[in-house]
Structures are given as structure tokens and as C-alpha cells.
């Protein structure tokens, strides 16, 4: 359950995901739009999850099972929670570099005040940091940080990391209707992003079932206004608004493919049907996973998605 995909990524092409959090969600935030669900186990202290050698062997084995056309463009740490909570993240990145595939990390940036976390992330080739608001009250509303985190430290950590990182740095701002989508907040957020000078500033909206059911994407005119505000600050902006596609990699083991992917990345129904076909399985396997409550079906924006179901 360490690696999954590759899945089509709007940012990274074919991305082989690495989930270095081996349990139900463990995170420092509980973002209202999170596709993995509400955080039940908050944590801000780094822990030992998987040994780097275990991650390396699992990824290497996964790569060998893929068809040549499915070779990933990136190995991406995108966890069932916050990947920098893994105290061995840096050592894992160093070990995976032996595979000669660029390493990406998607982080909520909550722990960047720690020198050790910054040092680990500096080993990656591509890092995406969450930048939903440059406003303390909005930060609490949208990201629901652990009570041991402080906004001032959060911002200082982001600025410090941006000044040190030599790889490709991008930001992602998730717009949520009625929370961080008004012009005042958007100007504050874009001012901070301009200060750290990312190569790309992504603006996205919820496209999968969010942790809080009433969370909605802003209307199209609001998204356009956000794009204009960011652009007018001199940022290189790109919108992430659509579906990535159904072309997901597969290993031949349908159960592992389904569970490993939907632990981190809800699978839309059309993608699920294509994945079953590639793995030479049929809908009876899907029915079995649903019956055994290993996954569950959720409807969002008229589409069905399949999500990992944990039993606490």
C-alpha cells in the first residue's frame, strides 16, 4: 500500500504516487475540501512510518510491474495525510533517486518552520506547497490547523523554504466558495505568493468529494477574477479545473490497485471501470470490495467516486 498508479496528473504528467503514511489519515491540517476526508488524528511531531529501504523496494517492484507506456514522469510523495510528518522523508528521497526518476512532494507547508523538514524537501526536484490564504482567520477556516501550529511560524517557514530551495517550486491555492474567494483575500494570498516567487502558481477548485459535504467551487466569474488578480501581480498562473482523465497505470492486481489508489485519490466511476478492464477484472470484484466495506461509493457533482473506507 505504499505506491499507486501511475495516475494522470494535471501538474506532473504520469505520477507514481507514494503514500508514506501507512494508516488512516494522519495530518497537521483538516482542510474543508480534503478528498481524503476529515482528520481524526492530528499530528505535528514527525514520526517513523516506513523505513526508506522498504519504500524503495516497494516502488522498485511496482515499476517493474508496469508496462513501458506507463513509466512515470515523477515519483510523487502524496500521502494519506501530510508527507513531511515522515521523519525519514529525506532519506527516502535520496534512496529513490537511484531509480533516475524525478521526485516530487506535495505538502501543506505546515512544518516548514523546522530546519529538518526544509532540508528533507530540498532533496526533491519539484515541490508543491499549499497556499490557500495569507490571513490567519481564513487559514483557520479553510485549513483547520492543529492547535499547536501558529500562523506566523507557518508563513515564516514558507518564505524561508522558498529562499533555500533550488528545485522547481509551485504553489496551489484551492478556492472555496464563500471562504477564500473574495478580492480582498485573493489579493492578500497573491501578495504572499509573489513574495516567494514560484515557477507556477496553480489555482484549483474542488473536483472530488470534499471532507465537508457543503463545500463548493466558486462560480466561473469568481475563478476568472482570481486568475486576473494573480496575473496582475506578475505571477505565472495556471488553472486546475478539470478532470485529469481515466488513463491510470495498473499492475495486474486489481484489488491492490484499487485500494492503493483510492486511499489517497478517490477514483471516479469511469476511471474505475477502465482500471478493472486493464486488470482483467469485472464488476463483481468491485461489488465485493464494497460489500466488505474496504471502499465506499460517494456521489459528488453528479459523478460517482470510490473512496477507501477505514474502520476505527
Considering the chains and any ligands shown, give keywords for the structure.
single chain, 312 residues, alpha/beta, TIM Barrel, 13 strands
Report on the structure:
This protein is an alpha/beta fold. Helices cover 35% and strands 20% of the residues. The protein contains 10 helices and 13 strands. The protein has helices spanning 52-65, 89-96, 115-121, 136-143, 151-164, 183-196, 220-232, 254-264, 269-278, 283-291, and strands at 3-9, 13-18, 26-27, 41-42, 74-77, 103-107, 126-130, 168-174, 200-204, 237-240, 267-268, 295-300, 303-308. The strands form 3 sheets. It has an 8-stranded mixed beta sheet with strand order 1-2-5-6-7-8-9-10. A 3-stranded antiparallel beta sheet has the order 11-13-12. A two-stranded parallel ribbon has the order 3-4. The longest helix has 14 residues, at 52-65. The radius of gyration is 19 Å and the shape is globular. The model has no long low-confidence stretch (mean pLDDT 88).
